[in-house]
């Protein structure tokens, strides 16, 4: 298979086919270039944009169909959750204050959605009688927030760690989630997805982990969870071909013989075998659920990977044209041990191996110097900033102001709930803005509410390779909208809707199912 | 009037009179020393503990009665909110997990409350048939959180400031709340009180501000708001006898003549006149609403007060045996300008003037050195730590670990919503714990979940002068309880219930009215 280009900055283009029944605002709809609505779903309703899947063998095709049908759960008498988007009809959101993007003041407007696309934003829009209507009076309609870094497997270990740094926390990983069943992986992922959508987040870049190594069933479980929850996701199995004990200098040597043997027994599969599973996942599940769930490649921590493994990961990502995501210099231990191992900074080493580039997202990036930041900017790489996690496991405060000044695309994440306690992107916004103000007295570098909102919207969209389609409430955007009360006690004044905001009253995800879960929405 | 001793550490003692009708747990009730239940209220139901008010003249007595009746609002056709506690009957909270105090693991227990007192905590408690019952299944029953530093007047200016330091923020005060009517003061205070009780906080130390100086009507308005909301409060009018422009070195000199004259016109009343109002407030409103609302004295920022004013404030607090509260070294500007003015640290200066002592609470205390911390500890003074505000207006990170290690009583506050966006004490817990971890790599000093909870409970109780009565779910504690879901998505595991907790499902304040506002409670 030939090398494909990363989607980032090279959007899929689809022929414009505005639906004829959108009345009253044809002028505004005008030259929508991205609307591609075609028949799909069992009921003949308009379906969602989806990329053509790669050819599959019979088993893979069957598995894929099962995910898309979402009609099974592995155990017990659970009612199946519907996985596939059923084909969203027209949705009209009326009378809200629309915060179109991070740097635009909110303005009264309606939002018209057809299928998975926003086709008009403006006052006085109309829709056909059978359209779903959502009254957003007293609410702020914001772009669906994008969680640019999380870990599905963490949602079952909330709150277990306190006052530990990253390395001891990671070292307890096997005790917390070694050998989970796919059902457990599914439930953990679903829990996080539900928390996200309930707090205004509609898209996630998820580096789920399965120990000792991911199986294709674990990949399927996480994909299925996001498909079921109605959240847009980039699912990247977090993989490594070295043991945790091998990259922290001196750690393996410090173990007594019996414990060293025990650790050896937990060795992950070989690098090629691991990437074979990731490759199978890409073949089976990439661009599934109407294109809403995609896959990416994530050699989790560079120091825990051989260079061969890093390079093979890069090639795999290139082959499928998908994203590449690693943790980068999250802790001082990582930064210093990397320098000791490579004789240069981790960022420089990743650059020399060929990891950096427009499809690359580095999580955390706390311990980057000016040269590292320049490398990130000049290669078009993205950073996923995780302020709450950086505080909780005491990693430090990332130089976000310097990154933004140098032109790095910075996105925002919660990180996994094991290291940050929750999946609330509104809290992440607040932590990002406030944390920047104790990092330095250099106030022009303090993150404003608008800057943090851009990180959580357009910054995240770019990191997910969907910068042309997500992150704004604007026509041609894929429908990912969230609405917040502007009148409730803990919302800010309308003059500054972002600064103090935290509570999300309902969130409309990128599927009609999630939108319909709001009490103020009726199913289409 | 002779000097009274501060209540702190010298609790009111009342004769034990356990109610005869508490069946099934008399053994546990046993030797409750603090229960004092006497008849009160219109309906002959058991009333609340209340200290005898000082003698009042006719007008003051009338005013006080009006507050206690709470039967009026100044304008319009509003329905009056009931101010007085109606006399709570017996309340039995069953089947919760009780987190009795900051350092105790949660355990299954019932909680029996009679009037305003917890009379028993343990499994299988019973109550008379007419008692109010509250099913706390799946909930964590925690002590009502105590907000040790807030500003009622800030609740109408949420979110207006972003990326400014403290001094520019304070300088905009007149533009934001000069000349507010008592009705506006009432509404602003009520808004904050409601937010607090909805987020698990049942007691507050409130330094409300009225510009140019407080009137007795503004004091009454804030007292009435807390009485109406059912929140326990220590209301301290924040006062100063110097202009903001007079204490920041060079600021007054830098103004052109016309602006200097404009500023002069905003000069507050004279020190004696201001303290006369505070004194009148103490006479009229201290220990009102069944002892639930009390007053304190707050020369707001030492640098904005003459030494004569500070000393007179101290004497006034001593005369009534009430608390004294100031901001202390919140910003670097305050700390440095204080050193320039006094030739020593602010803390040392306050000590020399006679401010420090067991009744004294210092808000913020960010810029304290080891000598200052020793002075605070050795005088038995308290600190109210406000992590979110210290981040938002970039004051810095207070040396809480050093204070705790030296034996300072540290409480927790939200600060006013103008500088911290909300009144959510669960968020304050989270900010306190996480912020400590980026202050220093010295991990033994990182605040644990248990330490922050102690700050927000027993630490706050001590700062409010109610260390013997609040801050724990234990018999002899005044009823101030909050319950949280232990099963909802954003709660932590039961092994560590505090670390990740944020959402409060209902809160029972110290009045029956507030408790009855919970959907799972029926009014007694």
Write up this protein.
With 524 residues, chain A is an alpha/beta fold. Chain A has two domains: 124 residues, Roll (Urease, subunit C, domain 1), CATH 2.30.40; 319 residues, Metal-dependent hydrolases (TIM Barrel), CATH 3.20.20. Helix content of chain A is 34%, strand content 15%. Chain A contains 19 helices and 17 strands. In chain A, strands 1, 2, 3, 4, 5, 16 and 17 form a seven-stranded mixed sheet that branches. The first copy, chain A, has a four-stranded parallel sheet with strand order 6-7-8-10. In chain A, helix 17 packs across helix 18. The first copy, chain A, is globular and about 75 Å long. Chain A starts with 25 loop residues before the first helix and ends in an 8-residue tail after the last helix. The C terminus of chain A is likely disordered. Chains A and B meet through helix 5, helix 14 and helix 17 of A and helix 5, helix 15 and helix 18 of B.
Any key phrases for this structure?
19 helices, 4-stranded parallel β-sheet, TIM Barrel, about 35% helix, homodimer, about 525 residues, disordered C terminus
Strand content of chain A: 15-25%
Biggest interface between chains? A-B, 49 and 49 residues
Classify the secondary structure makeup of chain A into a structural class: alpha/beta
**Contiguous helical run count of chain A:** 19
Q: How many domains of chain A, as an integer?
A: 2
Label the overall shape of chain A: globular
Poorly predicted runs of chain A are: 9-55, 70-87, 487-524
Number of strands of chain A: 17
- As a whole number of angstroms, the C-alpha radius of gyration of chain A is 22 Å
CATH architecture field of the largest domain in chain A: Alpha-Beta Barrel
Query: Helix content range of the residues of chain A, please?
Result: 25-40%
């Amino acid at each position: 298979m030939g090398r494909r280009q990363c989607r980032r900055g090279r959007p899929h283009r689809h022929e414009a086919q505005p639906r004829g029944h959108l009345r009253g605002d044809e002028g505004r709809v005008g030259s929508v270039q991205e609307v591609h609505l075609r028949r799909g779903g069992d009921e003949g309703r308009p379906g969602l944009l989806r990329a053509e899947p790669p050819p599959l063998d019979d088993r893979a095709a069957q598995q894929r169909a099962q995910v898309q049908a979402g009609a099974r759960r592995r155990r017990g008498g659970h009612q199946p959750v519907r996985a596939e988007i059923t084909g969203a009809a027209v949705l009209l959101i009326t009378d809200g204050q629309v915060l179109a993007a991070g740097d635009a003041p909110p303005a009264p407007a309606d939002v018209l959605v057809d299928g998975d696309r926003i086709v008009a934003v403006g006052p006085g829009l109309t829709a056909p009688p059978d359209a779903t209507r959502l009254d957003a009076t007293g609410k702020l309609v914001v772009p669906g927030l994008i969680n640019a870094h999380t870990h599905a497997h963490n949602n079952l270990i909330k709150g277990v760690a306190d006052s530990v740094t990253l390395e001891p926390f990671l070292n307890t990983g096997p005790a917390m989630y070694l050998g989970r069943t796919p059902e457990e992986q599914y439930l953990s992922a679903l829990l996080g997805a539900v928390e996200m959508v309930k707090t205004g987040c509609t898209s996630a870049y998820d580096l789920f982990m399965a120990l000792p190594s991911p199986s294709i069933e674990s990949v399927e479980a996480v994909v299925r969870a996001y498909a079921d929850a109605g959240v847009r996701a980039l699912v990247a199995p977090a993989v490594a071909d070295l043991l945790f004990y091998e990259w922290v200098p001196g750690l393996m040597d410090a173990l007594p013989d019996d414990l060293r043997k025990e650790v050896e027994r937990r060795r992950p599969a070989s690098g090629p075998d691991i990437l074979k599973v990731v490759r199978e996942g890409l073949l089976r599940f990439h661009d599934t659920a109407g294109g809403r769930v995609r896959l990416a490649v994530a050699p989790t921590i560079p120091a825990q990977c051989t260079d061969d493994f890093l390079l093979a990961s890069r090639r795999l990502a290139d082959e499928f044209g998908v994203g590449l995501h690693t943790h980068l210099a999250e802790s001082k231990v990582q930064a210093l041990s990397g320098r000791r191992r490579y004789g240069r900074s981790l960022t420089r080493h990743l650059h020399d191996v060929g990891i950096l580039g427009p499809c690359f997202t580095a999580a955390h990036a706390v311990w980057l110097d000016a040269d590292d930041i320049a490398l990130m900017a000049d290669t078009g790489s993205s950073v996923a900033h995780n302020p709450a996690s950086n505080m909780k496991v005491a990693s430090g405060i990332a130089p976000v102001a310097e990154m933004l000044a140098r032109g790095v695309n910075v996105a925002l994440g919660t990180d996994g709930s094991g290291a940050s306690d929750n999946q609330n992107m509104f809290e992440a916004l607040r932590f990002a803005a406030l944390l920047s103000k104790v990092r330095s007295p250099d106030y022009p570098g303090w993150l404003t509410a608008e800057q943090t909102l851009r990180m959580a919207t357009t910054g995240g969209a770019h990191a997910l390779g969907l910068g042309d389609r997500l992150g704004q409430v604007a026509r041609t955007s894929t429908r990912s909208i969230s609405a917040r009360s502007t009148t409730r006690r803990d919302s800010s004044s309308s003059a500054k809707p972002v600064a103090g905001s935290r509570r999300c009253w309902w969130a409309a995800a990128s599927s009609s199912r999630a939108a319909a879960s709001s009490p103020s929405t009726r199913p289409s």
